[in-house]
Structures are given as C-alpha cells and as structure tokens.
Amino acid sequence: MGSMWMMRQVSIRVVASTNSLLLSNSIVTSQFPISFSFSSFYPKSQYLISLVSSSQRHSLSTTAASSSSSSSSSHFGDVEEIVVSKNGSNSKTLLKGLTYSEFEDWVQLQGYRPGQALMLWKRLYGNDIWAHQIDELEGLNKDFKKMLSENAEFKALSLKEILTASDGTKKILFTLEDGQVIETVVIPCDRGRTTVCVSSQVGCAMNCQFCYTGRMGLKRHLTAAEIVEQAVFARRLLTSEVGSITNVVFMGMGEPLHNIDNVIKAADIMVHDQGLHFSPRKVTVSTSGLVPQLRRFLHESNCALAVSLNATTDEVRNWIMPINRKYKLGLLLETLREELRFKNNYKVLFEYVMLSGVNDSIEDAKRLIDLIEGIPCKINLISFNPHTGSQFQPTSDAKMIEFRNVLAEAGCTVFLRPSRGDDQMAACGQLGNPGAIQAPLLRVPKQFQTALNISV
C-alpha cells in the first residue's frame, strides 16, 4: 500500500477477471493497513490480486474475449476493488496480460521481492531474450523459477505460419487458445524503421466496404496478452533477419478502439522503459472514428493516434465506413480539433485509402483541406489493395500524385504510402479469412455505380 498508512473505513470488492468479463464476487469491509488472506477463496497460484482505488478503476482492463463491445468498469463510489486475474480455464497466470505494476504485485503475492519482478520482466520483454519458457530465464533464483513453472504461463499465442512477400514483408499467422487465427505483419524498412502491425480483434465489426477483414464480422476481442505477444514474437522471430523493430501500428485485424481497454493496456506494456521500450510516439493506434473512445484514448494514452478518414462527405463515408452513420465527419473532426488543443507537439495521422472514382477527385482534395483546417496533422495517401469480392479499384499513380500535390500546395504535410506485401495478402486492408458467412456489402450510391462497373 506504499509508505503512507491510512486508517479509514472502505469497502473491498473482490473481482475475478477471466478471459471473459469482470465478475463481482463478494464484499468485505476492512481498514487500512489491510491484512488479509484469500487462500480459502482463491488459491494464490491461480490468481493475481491487486488493490486499486476508485480513481484508478477507470483504467482497469476487462480482458474481454467475446464479441461484445468493450466496457469500462462500473463505479461503486468509495469502493476499493481487488482484481483477481486468471488465464481462462488454465490455473496459471498469463504474465503478458499484466502491466508492470500488476506484474510486480503478482510476484510479491508469491512471496518474492520486487527486484525479482524486474529481472523477470526484462527477460520477457528486454535484454534481447523475449523468453517463452522456463529454461530461457537464465540468472533467476532457482526457487523463483520453480514457482514460475508451477504458477505462470509465458505464451499467449502459437505460431502457425510465416509468409514472405516479394518485397520482404512478413505475414505471421498465429493460432489462439480457442483455435481462432490472427495475422500480424512485419514491414522492413531500409532506413532502419522496421514496423510490426498488430491485430486487436479476430475480425472486425465496422464493415468498412474496402477492407477484407471487415468481411469477417467480429469474432471476438483479443486480450492484452494476445496483443502484446504479437510484438514479442515479431522481435523474437525476425530481429536477426530484418533488424531492430522500432515501430508498432495497431492497424492489423480489428478496430482497436472497439477493444479500447485491452489496447490501452497492451500499449502501456509495450512502451515500458525496462521492457519492449517502444517510444510512445512510435506506437500508433488507428481508429475508424469511434468518437467517445477516441476522446478517452487521447486522455489516457501518450501513444500516437491515426484516424482512417477515407472520404470528404458524409454521403460517401456513410457508405464505405458505416461507423460514420453514428459519428459524422463533423463530430469526429471537431472532437479532434478540441482535444488536440491540450496536447503539445502532437499530430494526428489521417489515413486516406484512395478508391478510383469514389474519393479521389480534385474536389475531394480541396474539401479535405477545408475539413482538416485547425487540426495538427499529417496525411497518408494509401493505395487501395484489391481482394476477393471487392467492388473497388485503386486510384492510378498519376492521379494519386496530382491529389497529393493539391494538398501539399495548400501547406498540408502529406505522404504517398506504397503497398507492401500485397502478393501475400499482407497489405493494408487485406488481412483475415472471411469464410463462408460474410458481412453484407452495402448498396452503392447511384453516382458511383459507373465507377464500380455496376449496371444502373
């Protein structure tokens, strides 16, 4: 409880956190300093128990592994909650689902010093070890390692396959505990800025019409451990081949802010300076525009934000990105304009996938200039990457350059982003496996049917 000892009446709520939802278990009353044992309720080898205050409760992760939306913890006034975390049906604690403070609490709960927690943390995430099993934990106390073998789980994913595209991009397929498969992409860069693109969900609920993952619908959220492990595996498997992996983008399968609790928690683990130590400005979380979650992310995380814009009118965005029907362009951009006033030296990245005859006109470029006025930003123009069942065509290189030049002449910071890994379905918008049951294609507005070669 730290060095300050307080005597006050509080309520203690015991909460069991499994891979589904936080489940309220019981209420007991105590005073600080608190001394208690949960051995009669929960064997300590199965659970993480940590005490959090009402002010901290909002940042707790619910590690939800269901197709329901992420939800934040309930508020109970001056109630202190004890979070009891366990790895699904497995009796062992999955370490990569814990922030460092939770990690340290768990080690101390097992009867060991905080210093041993730091040594273990460095072997999981730092020192070029990225340990996945006990025999890789050199230099740790023998008894400590024995405790870990009995009570801790190190891996959240199983490697299924690695595919290599002609340009050197690597697509890694992972199998989850429930048999689902996710995809992670590692994008080498000659300038020493290799990026790992991680998934945050199995499938996606947003149904963006140009995205292959969106055809899957949402199967479930990934836990924080399953997200973090993608970056750990990438460094472990590919650092010797592609060099240091310096950047993380949450641009793989899923809408990250739909799974905001686990995404914020995973990002916190990734940027810890004694572990993976990614710079917060080099960890970028992308969103299609979930406005309340976007606002929360900007308040709670120092990581970078990307917004997938892709249209300059509500009519077009309602069609290609159905989330716009709930959070219109005006609301989305005004929220960014308001929030970024309070973040120094912070620029949002706008992603703009260019679809031939749909959103790539000079008029679109001029509207885009007006839309983003007053928002500190950079713009990435992205070539559409075709996939099975797609109605769209990519904008020509010449037209992309013309569009780029209009923005640049108006003073915008704008980049053309070439496709990477498209011959292995590893490029932007190509991840996943929709299967037989797919999300519906939406009606194409009349004025775009010719551009998509649809008979009127």
Say which CATH homologous superfamily of the largest domain is assigned.
Aldolase class I
Helix coverage percent: 25-40%
The count of strands amounts to 18
User: Roughly how many Å apart are the termini?
Assistant: 69 Å
CATH topology of the largest domain: TIM Barrel
Domain count: 2
Report the total helices. Answer: 11
Ranges where pLDDT stays below 50 over 5 or more residues in a row are 1-85
Oligomer: single chain
Which second-level CATH architecture of the largest domain applies?
Alpha-Beta Barrel
Provide the succession of SSEs.
EEEEEHHHEEEEEEEHEHEHEHHEHEHEH
How much of the residues is beta strand, in percent? 15-25%
Q: What is the CATH class of the largest domain?
A: Alpha Beta
Mean pLDDT: 84
Gyration radius over CA: 23 Å
Tell the overall outline. globular
Largest sheet: 10 strands, mixed
User: Structural class, from helix and strand content?
Assistant: alpha/beta
GO molecular function, one term: metal ion binding
Subcellular location: Cytoplasm
GO biological process, one term: rRNA base methylation
Keywords: 4Fe-4S, Cytoplasm, Iron, Iron-sulfur, Metal-binding, Methyltransferase, rRNA processing, S-adenosyl-L-methionine, Transferase
